[in-house]
Amino acid sequence: MIPVCPTTALPPGEATRVEADEPIAVFNVDGEFFAIDDTCTHQDASLADGWLDGCAIECPLHASCFDLRTGKVSGPPAKTPVRTHRVVVQDGTIYVQPGVAADGAA
Amino acid sequence: MSPTVAVVGASLAGLSTARALRDRSYDGRIVVIGDEVHLPYDRPPLSKDFLAGTASLEDIALGTPDDEDLGLEWRLGTTAIGLDHLGRSVLLSDGSGIRADGVVLATGARARRLPGSEGLDGVHVLRSLDDAITLRQELTAAERLVVIGAGFIGAEVASTARGLGLEVTVVETQPVPLAGPLGAAMGAVCAELHADHGTRLLTGTGVAGLVGSGRVEAVELTDGTLLPADVVVVGVGAAPNVEWLAGSGVALGNGVLTDARGATNIPGVVAVGDCAATWSAAADRHVRTEHWTNALEQPATAVAALLGAGEPVPPPVPYFWSDQYGARIQFAGLRREGDVARVVEGSCADRSFLVVYERDGHPVAVLGMNQPRLFTRWRRQLRSAVAAAS
Fold first, then answer.
1. Residue A45: which of B42, B296, B372 has the nearest Cβ?
2. Helix, strand or coil, per DSSP, at residue B196
3. pTM, whole model, 2 decimals?
4. Which of B65, B64, B66, B80 has the alpha carbon at shortest distance from B31?
5. Chain B residues within 8 Å of chain A (Cβ atoms)
6. Within this chain, do residues B224 and B249 fall inside the same structural domain, yes or no?
7. Any CB–CB contact under 8 A between A73 and chain B?
8. In which domain, by residue range, is B253 found?
9. CA-based angle B57:B126:B238, to the nearest 5?
10. Which of A51, B38, B143, B332 is the most exposed place for a label (fewest CB within 10 A)?
């Protein structure tokens, strides 16, 4: 597991980027944490820099949308989903498990 | 017999319309008519990665596997030539017609051409996939490119051609490029990217004509200068594809005139995307918006109007971007002449900055170069501000 940050450092509506083999973006949606691949599958852009609207993240460059819960594309021009990663909170710290899909992800 | 919606236009606005219809649980027939033979594809890469040869047709296709569930009937390679609003049917170039309970006009726009350029080889516009394929072939064999018009398309083609190693000259009639969308001060800043990357930019210079017989050899400027050219790209704006609606009873101006939700004066007929001149309360006039995001987002509202759902119009914050010479330019908001542009982050000299346009001390628009994170925050803030004010 990769430590991300204390839960207090990632308030609702915010996102952060974690370096891993493939960078991972971690989001706080109203107190629930989600992790997906940080790099947009359309072109090289960091989804942690994107526009978070509910459980949808919009790429900051070309407006592709992904569902944080499933990684699925919810708006073009991207066509390929991003991977989800399981998030664990222990003792007030957020961790991600790279390569382990989030519960309920497709 | 199940109801039918005819979507006239098979690009981003048309596809978004079809998706929005199904999102709203419309389960009737959807016929999508496109004058190009291709399934919907993404146009922005046509001047960038696709033109450079680094993105394939498969890369720029807009359709996804999920779209097969939409159950669309495609009529591609078929041009709509008329609308009979009494019988509510769309007349097609192959002589057939499609009876429809609802019609969505999404015929887009076409590139304006330079008068006198017809029949001269080597002179191109860039709007469609076929335009891009032809231009790409020509650029690979060319040494000198002249681009007429320093708007976003012109600048992006110049950028891509420089990347392919061509000698590039851009000619712009206006004293400052992009002054319309960005204002003169920031237009000038963005235009500096050309010189940074070895593209020659000539401003305040009109084109007198094209020189050559059979194939273009040079561009002649109004001051008499001759610019030798193997290839010429004309990027002087676009005109809405609405001539086919003449006599249909649909009200036309600079595009199909609609209310704020996309409804035309004819019941059961809505218009979206580049062909639509949509009523804007903020501007107090009909506004035709040629942005990608508009073609993506507008159909949801128009489909709601078509299906009789009485939902309020979401407040628009127009957004567009341009990728040139590796720089990411992004703009959002409603700028007017007289708004004051203020750099709030970075510096223009570093080609990394965020500029906020203010009117009466309030932010109304935002421009970023290579600042996607900060730009997105400002864009979001603008949308909240507009929603609160309306």
1. B372
2. helix
3. 0.94
4. B80
5. 12, 42, 44, 49, 60-64, 292-293, 296, 319, 321, 323, 328, 330, 372-373, 375-376, 379-380
6. no
7. yes
8. 4-110+239-306
9. 125
10. B143
Lowest model confidence (mean pLDDT) among A50-59, B46-55, B308-317: B308-317
Q: Which of A50, A60, A63 sits opposite B293 (nearest CB)?
A: A63
Instruction: Using alpha carbons only, give the angle B62, B70, B93 rounded to the nearest 5 degrees.
Output: 75
CA atoms of B68 and B349, how far apart (whole Å): 48
- What's residue B306's pLDDT? 96
Task: Please compute Rg for chain B using Cα positions.
Answer: 22
Q: Exposure of B56 by Cβ count < 10 A (0-12 exposed, 13-18 middle, 19+ buried)?
A: exposed
Look at residue A105 and tell me whether its pLDDT is greater than 90.
no
The verdict on residue A103 lying in a domain is no
> Per-residue pLDDT tens for A30-79?
999 999 999 999 988 999 999 999 999 999 988 899 999 999 999 999 99
Q: In chain A, what percentage of residues exceed pLDDT 90?
A: 82
- From the list B42, B60, B376, the residue facing A60 with the nearest CB is B376
pLDDT per residue over B127-174, tens digit each? 999 999 999 999 999 999 999 999 999 999 999 999 999 999 999 999
Per the CB < 8 A criterion, the answer to whether B335 and B364 are in contact is: yes
A85 class by beta-carbon count within 10 Å (0-12 exposed, 13-18 middle, 19+ buried):
buried
Among B191, B221, B236, give the residue marking a domain's end. Answer: B236
Domain shared by B84 and B134, yes or no: no
Contact A51 B328 (CB under 8 A): no
Pick the more confident residue, B87 or B342: B342
Give the closest of A46, A60, A73 to B64, CB-based: A73
Say whether residue A63 is in contact with chain B using an 8 A CB cutoff. Answer: yes
User: Could you tell me if A16 lies within 8 Å of chain B, comparing CB atoms?
Assistant: no
Q: Note down the domain range covering A31.
A: 2-97
Using one digit for the tens of pLDDT, what is the confidence trace for B228-268?
Answer: 999 999 999 999 999 999 999 999 999 999 999 999 999 99
Note whether residue B155 is domain-resident: yes
Chain B: nearest CA to A74, how far in angstroms?
Answer: 10
For residue A46, what pLDDT is reported?
95
In angstroms, the separation between the Cα of residue A41 and the nearest Cα of chain B is 11
Specify if B377 maps to a domain: yes
Q: Quick check: B148 and B236 in contact, CB under 8 A?
A: yes
Nearest to B127 by CA among B50, B52, B47: B47
